[in-house]
Amino acid sequence: MLAVVSDQAIALRGVHKRFGSIAAVDGLQLTVPLGVCFGLLGPNGAGKSTTMRMLTAQAVADEGSITVLGLELPREGKQARRLMGVVPQLDNLDVELTCRQILDVFARLYRVPRARRAAAVDRALEIANLQPRADTIVRDLSGGMRRRLLVARGLIHEPRLVLLDEPTVGLDPQVRQELWSLIDRLRSSGVTVLMSTHYIEEAERLADIVAVMSAGRVIAEGTPEELVRAHAGEEVLEVYGPPEHLREVTELAERRGWPSRRSGPAVAILRAEQPAAGELPEGSRRPANLEDAFVALTGEEIE
Amino acid sequence: MSVDALAEAERPSAVESLPRTRRLDPAAIAAVMSRDITLFGRYWQSTTFSSIVQPVIYLLAFGLGLGSLVSHVGHLDYVQYVGTGVVATAVLFSSAFPGMFNTFIRWRFQRSYDAMLATPIDVEELITAEVLWISLRAGVYCVAPLLVAIAFGLSPAIGMLLVPFIGFVTAIGFASFGVVIAAVAKTIDNFNYVTSAVLTPMFLVAGTFFPISSFPLGLRIVAELNPLYHCVQLVRDAALDQLQVADLWHAAFLLVFAIAMWRLAIRLLGRQLID
Fold it and tell me: B18 and A58 in contact by Cβ < 8 A?
């Protein structure tokens, strides 16, 4: 049987998932087209990881339908998992095995034919730039190398769809850059990527389409530029000053109905292009970014 | 990181077509076991050491110690009696403990099961492979006490060739029992209850070191329900070339125990592994 091909890599319709009294996913609608890098952006607890687990049928939705590469989950989960690679948020490598051993085991788990297994392992080592460490046991690898090995493990069978759950959480900036370029190359090679993240910069840099998740559902979706324009306007005015001045500015914004938020030591007024120039207080203008849109949407400050 | 390897995305994918999925796919089970085998390559020395030294200690303690007071149990020499009893003990410990600890650690601490269940493996295949691996190992290693007992004076017999198979079937039951305990335990400390309240009495009330016929009736009935007792009887009759019709009952009991525990393990751990 050949995999049923559709133009959608992933489709979730009216998906609910409760844990006890908590609704982790609450009426989720999501469509990921083939061939894009799709970012699922949301604060911790928004339901991103639960969504990821449902896509591998490691969690089963209480309600709604989930289709991955034309296969219906959870019924056809096993076939679907054959076609996708998963990079988990939490490191679950076998610390006592070498990189090569781990990749070989996963090549078997993904049913890479015996004749191609050695080549698949070498290719994965190359992608992750781990050839010099091929025979090092995982316990002796650095955090960045372990993360790269996790990615390589998920790519061993050349999947058409890759799920990355918070791919760079807890990594230092240099390692994060390395992973970003790897994800970017993945997307360029035609693989569909679904990435969950709570780093706005990560979504902005990598994602073709971003869906903002909050409290178990998608509250906005579009290209990063579309989201910024729709929810934060074009320009942001940042006003600095002593606390009482900032309080006055906040009150002024509230009276005039200008969207504003505290942004570190400043007050940021969104859609600063709209009011007449004379109305606004003194401050510095900058282009609106995804963080402005995100805060406007969720009311939450995140990294 | 290398650009070239990804740039080769043009070439055919490693997985081209999807065969219809089947239950208990042998390729899936072999893949899960390949991980166990690879890991075993790292610790086989310690396993081999303990599986030989432990029966030596039991045989010395019971054979030389208790054996100096007791020369025969029924029609058997005490070394024949204890030597075969120790085989069953080895099976119990080399299956129930890995069943409990490996499962709990791999599931809760190392998250290896989560990693494997993100690949085309399902819960039934995962648990079956894990139990199968433990049982194959137990089946092989339970020969060690027999060899030690031969060194202590037990005569080799053709029926001894059956012992690995008896050990294997018994181990499926006990390894699965271990998985069941891991699935219901809240913390790893809970295993202490099982070890002291279930496994230790089980290993003593099984006719391993002394016959259950000396027990009062109530305890004899408990012993008859103890799978390890049936393993001991079967191993003893096989290893001493004394197989009889009653052994069919022992074998049937062990088979039913193995299948029931295997299914229960899949059911209970499966419920925990899939949200």
Answer: no
Neighbour tally for A210: CB within 10 Å: 29
Name the helix (H) or strand (E) containing B73. strand B72-73
Instruction: With CA atoms as reference, report the closest residue to B174 among B230, B269, B91.
Output: B91
Q: Is the pLDDT reported for residue A3 higher than 60? A: no
Torsions phi, psi of A239, nearest 5? -110, 125
Chain A contact for B119, CB < 8 A? yes
CB spacing of A79 vs B120 below 8 angstroms:
yes
Are the beta carbons of B115 and A88 separated by less than 8 Å?
yes
Question: Can you point out the beta strands (E) in chain A?
Answer: 8-19, 22-33, 37-41, 63-68, 71-73, 84-87, 161-165, 192-197, 209-214, 217-222, 235-239, 260-263, 266-269, 284-287
Does domain A232-296 fall under CATH 3.30.70? My reply is yes
| C-alpha span between B18 and A131 (Å, rounded) | 30
What's the N-to-C CA distance of chain A in angstroms?
45
d(CA B273, nearest CA chain A) in Å: 7
The parent domain of residue B259 ranges over 45-273
Whether residue B16 is contained in a domain is answered as no
pTM (2 decimals)? 0.90
Short-list B125, B49, B99, CA closest to A111: B125
In a domain, B120, yes or no: yes
Interface pTM, i.e. ipTM:
0.89
A149 token code pair: 């090995």
Strand pairing report for A192-197 and A37-41? parallel
Location of each CATH 3.30.70 domain in chain A:
232-296
pLDDT tens per residue, range B85-126: 999 989 999 999 999 999 999 999 999 999 999 999 999 999
Return the number of CB contacts < 8 Å for A and B: 138
Beta bridge partners of A263: A266
Q: Where in chain A is the domain with CATH 3.40.50.300?
A: 8-222
| Beta bridge partner(s), residue A238 | A268, A284
| Residue B20 covered by a domain | no
Nearest CA distance, B242 vs chain A (angstrom): 44
Q: How far apart are CA B242 and CA A264, in angstroms?
A: 85
**Facing residue for B14 by CB, picked from A109, A116, A188:** A116
Across the interface, whether the CB atoms of A58 and B117 are under 8 A apart is answered: yes
**Cβ contact (<8 Å) for B17 and A1?**
yes
CATH number of the A8-222 domain: 3.40.50.300
Residue type, B193: Y
3-state helix, strand, coil in chain A (%, to 5): 40, 30, 35
CB contact under 8 A, B18 and A88: no
In Å, how far is A219's CA from the nearest CA of chain B?
25
Residue B24 lies in a domain: no
Reading the block at residue A94, the tokens are 């076998």
Mutate to test the interface with A, among B10, B16, B17, B18 (most CBs of A within 10 A): B18
**Encoding tokens for residue B183?**
């699935």
Looking at the partner chain, which of B14, B19, B273 has a beta carbon nearest the beta carbon of A157? B14
Predicted confidence (pLDDT) per residue in A8-30, tens digit: 999 999 999 999 999 999 999 99
B112 touches chain A (CB under 8 A): yes
What does the buried/exposed string (b/e) look like for A41-74 if buried means 16 or more CB atoms within 10 Å of the residue's CB?
bbbeebbbbbbbbbbbbbbebeebebbbbbbebb
